[in-house]
Design a protein that fits this description.
about 80 residues; alpha+beta; three-stranded antiparallel beta sheet; 3 strands; about 40% helix
Amino acid sequence: MKKKKEDDLSPRARAEDILLGSLGFGEDAKLVKVERTAQGYRGEGVWPDGEKFKFENDDQLDDLQVWALEVLVAG
């Protein structure tokens, strides 16, 4: 199923792309849950076929990643 153009522009969709993309996951991956950690973030994602995966980033966050986390954790 093709995403609507409006979905691509939503803050949530952009935030998902930022966090997952910074870890090397393609745009087909979707976020299931995310939480902030002491230094970064961790969570779970899912591929279009339903296969789930876990991710974690312990690197220092840049401003865009901080913004993305705020959008996703608050949402």
